[in-house]
Specification:
This protein is of the alpha/beta class. It has helices spanning about 10-20, 45-60, 95-100, 165-170, 175-190, and strands at about 1-5, 25-30, 65-75, 110-120, 125-135, 155, 160. The structure holds inosinic acid.
């Protein structure tokens, strides 16, 4: 079965392929599906934005679609940057901008979580799955892996940028949401190919 993921982000595609491939699902990127759309993500929640992206692609293809929306919610900033995570600072400057804004926040108030929502649409209907990853914001950037806020997000004392891709997938918001989606799709499309 073919499915289109409403993204051209290689990290997101690789993670989704790794987790969903045991169901015999082939995941195409937007580009591979020949779709060129970039809808305005003007929802107020991760679920709304994920559904906006999924719906825009579903209008143009004849097969099931998934789309994810994610971001970082910092408790001391009342949940910001949240759905604005991608627009919080110029690309590459998000960690330093966040560290500056949190300069005077004491250790016990530096809690935060990543949130991920994945929307799916097919001929039978639509739905969403969501998951989060709780941690703390550190005081400096550490690690070379990952992207976005990974170098300042501490999970049990280690930043996500210090983890391998497999270590991060095992505990991340996106990994957890994809594993929930695996269960939804196993129910929906059958598990004759599933080996886990
Ligand atoms: P979007 O889901 O592609 O709209 O992007 C959300 C933004 O949230 C990204 O640009 C990153 O800044 C941030 N973000 C989401 N997930 C992660 C993650 O796993 N690590 C670091 N930053 C993330």
């Amino acid at each position: 079965m073919k499915l289109v993921m409403a993204t051209n982000n290689e990290n997101k595609l690789r993670e989704a392929r790794e987790i969903l491939s045991p169901l015999g699902i082939e995941i195409l990127s937007q580009a591979e599906a020949g779709v060129d759309t970039n809808p305005e993500e003007n929802g107020e929640t991760f679920a709304e934005n994920a559904m906006i992206k999924a719906a825009a692609v579903y209008e143009l293809v004849q097969c099931p679609v998934i789309a994810d929306d994610s971001g970082l919610c910092v408790d001391a900033l009342n949940g910001a940057p949240g759905v604005y995570s991608a627009r919080y600072a110029p690309k590459g400057e998000e960690c330093q901008t966040l560290l500056k804004e949190m300069k005077h926040v004491p250790d016990d108030q530096r809690t935060a979580h990543f949130q991920c929502c994945i929307a799916y649409i097919d001929a039978e209907g639509y739905g969403t799955v969501s998951a989060s990853c709780a941690g703390k914001i550190g005081y400096e950037e550490r690690g070379e892996n990952g992207f976005g806020y990974d170098p300042v997000f501490l999970y049990n004392g280690t930043t996500l940028a210090e983890m391998t891709a497999d270590q991060k997938n095992a505990i991340s918001h996106r990994g957890a949401a994809l594993r929930l989606l695996f269960e939804v799709f196993r129910e929906r499309y059958g598990d004759k190919h599933a080996d886990k």
